[in-house]
Amino acid sequence: METKLHTFLNSNLLNKYLVGEASLEETKEVEFFISNYPEAAQAYDKLQKNLEIIAKAGAVDVPNHILGNILEALDENNHTKVIQLVQHRKTPWYSIAATAAAVLFAAFSLFLYQKNQILLDENNVVIDEIYDLRSDIKKNNTMLSELSLELNKLNDPDARKYIINGNDRAKDLKTVAYINPVEKTSMIDVIKLPELPEDQHYQIWAELQDRMVNLGILDESDRKLMQIPYMEDALALSIKIGKDGDETNENNTEVAEISLKDN
User: For residue range 197-217, what is the model confidence (pLDDT) as tens digits?
Assistant: First the structure.
């Protein structure tokens, strides 16, 4: 019923009923809503008050002889009462006043509705911007915390720095390894890696006394310090070119190496 009430209030039935232009069915519908819905009754009362204000503002005193002439004309007229009622309902100033009141009321209501929608939209935009700002601040704080942690690791007096440059097969290659034997942490900073075919990649290996251990794939697109496994007894670090799907050391081409025992 809320939908029907909304439809009724947006229709012109109240105006037609107020100025006496509603049909019998429309009159029954209007009186039903006025009797059963306070919103409809309030809207009707408001239209009545607006109409009275406009009518009083435009009213003028009618001379007595004019009224007498009208009554004489009515006595001589053979029209039925129904026709007289229709003529009375179509009094020009009354209809114009009612229409003007309805138009003013509708225009003012539309203006308030539009202003309210604009304020709601602006409020939603501000709320979204606040949430975005909070999210950005949270991300920035996380990044700063990670950066601070990395800097602390790099500035640790126990951390050792190893610059790994490429050999003749990859002259532009340059990475920096940071190894802390006290904290037992290892990180590598990828500075420059020459471009490879799509089916190949760079791998970093740790050389132990009896074997080679793959510590992971290096990627220049990731400019953050990369955590790599710490190898307690590593003798050297080397960078090799491997093929996708081949994690063995047999067919890899070594392009850089640095000893960990000379420092």
Answer: 888 888 999 999 888 899 888
160-259 domain in CATH 2.60.40? yes
CA 98, CA 86: separation in Å to the nearest integer? 16
pLDDT digits (tens, 9 = 90+) for 44-90: 888 888 777 766 655 545 455 554 565 565 555 544 444 343 444 44
What's the token pair of residue 182?
């006290």
Cβ pair 162, 263 in contact under 8 A: yes
